[in-house]
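Appendix B. One record, verbatim.
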Amino acid sequence: MARNSTNRNNRRDAIGNGSKNGNGEHRRRRVAATEDRRLCGYPRPMLRRSGWACLNGWWDFALDPDARWVRPEHVKWDKKILVPFAPETPASGIADTSFYNACWYRRTIRAPKLAHGERLILHFGAVDWHATVWFNGQVVVQHQGGYTPFSADVTGALVDGEQTIIVRAEDDPHDLAKPRGKQDWQLEPHSIWYPRTTGIWQTVWMERVPHTWISRVRWIPNVERWEMSIEARIHGRLTDGLKLRAKLSVGDQVLSDDAYLVVRGEANRRITFSDPGIDDYRNELLWYPHTPTLIHVDLELLEPGGVVIDSVKSYTAMRSIGVQGDRLVLNGRPYYLRMALDQGYWPETGLSAPDDEAIRRDVELAKAMGFNGVRRHQHVSDPRFLYWADTLGLLVWEEMPSPYRYTRHAIQRVTREWMDVIHRDISHPCIIAWVPFNESWGVPDLPDSPAQRHWVQAMYHMTRTMDPTRPVIGNDGWESVATDIIGIHDYDAEPDRIRKRYSDDESTETLFKRFRPGGRLLMLGPAPSDQPIMITEFGGIAYSKEKGTWGYSKAQSSKAFETKYTKLLEAIRSIPTIAGFCYTQFADTYQEANGLLYADRTPKFSIAAIARATGGHEAARDQRIMALWRQRMMNAQREHYLVPEEDHHVHAPS
């Protein structure tokens, strides 16, 4: 990629260095990162157990273009693949972007020695799309869905000596009725769609567990009541008298240390903390992007008599998120969102991160560029991304990858997998919003089809039922039928037009009657009277000297790009009626060259200049938003409760 000297100097502004230091060294680092568990990171950060092993690395591999092989003995093993990278990616060692309906994986391992009663669990972070797993010739698990984890207890299939794992991944590249996000159905990536992701693309791992173990934990903070709820599930051999001990601490300060009786495999409790009452002391415990305080948790499963039979580590945070009037509120205070659209691709590794450090670097880069959040667009984040967002303080909108056909199968597949996504990620404090649909993808006839509208509404209400603590954006972009936040996608390149369109209440009222981004109505129903409005896609300014790239508008130089971005962000930030924004996009993604960063995470102009343009004069704007919000809340309370305004004038006695 040709770049001028300014861009080369900008490399020093990047956090970390995404450049290649020779193909051989680059490959050696990737192999080490995939095989070393310290570098791949614990794959289930919300529930960490010491006895685990990473199974990433070189596996035997075979492509099955027509999905003819149905049994392992049919397979002709003629390739090697570096797991967890999809076979379409260069990092995998396969780099085959043609059409194929299935692929096969095989690896032999040595199982860890199990103590009496222990079990061996085999885990897969994600396999796209339909996985069948054999362990020593026995089918131990099948799973549908390309974005969610699954596991199998393989204890009963163990043999003496080496163990053989075989995986068949079936993934029809032309099936548009399953969640596929940005995976292209054409042979070559086009427009806003990118190479496909087939088979294993997240970490494969195994862990030893005792005969009775903690299998799941969910955390539900309640800032208003200053308490934390825990929902734990216990698996295996259940006996009377089991207790779950939970020790919650921040640094050296122990917040709670109690044991709770396990009843029918569950331990559900509300843990009330000592409330300091004063905001200054409360703020020390509250989770914010600028102070992401995590509560560390030690969980122990106790037999009667106090013998510890299982122990895991977890974490949580005191954080509330919601909507009040036309503002998003974080921990009870208005909070202005500055997000970047993040599609989560790397040039050599696709949707799989090169290593855990690359994930951390992306979170750090987003914050360094002045953003306090990201919208993870059309894919489900690796749990390691959510871990680093929790740890370093970055807000996340989680979005379901779309199908592109509306069918009975699509409804079943999307609904089931979306429930699994929420189930997996609900305890992460960084996630502040759920987005089941984007731009009516998968529901193309939304204005004219009651059934499609009912599905969007059902997904909205189901999500709110599964998680009442977070806002839900039913269909981001336009054609909203059920939402807590109105998200608008507007790629107008003229800052003055953008400013005028959203500048006041009168223009906002006109907006919902006349403005049609993408030729679509913003609302399918009455215009909202008092909901947050956010511009959740805009910008898309392309700057690249590579042929075949595009953006929604273009800049001819790094300096021109900086000027365009700065003026556009000034216009966006000046609009009092919006509660936040999401700029397109974080980094170049294949042919879509409208990132603030190149695909290798090198900035297109200095990180410091990006941050200044993104954030602007934060303090003054935030104070203005807070004052307007308080006034609106007071007015709403007066109208609701019919409280007369206080009269502070001094009257002469009659």
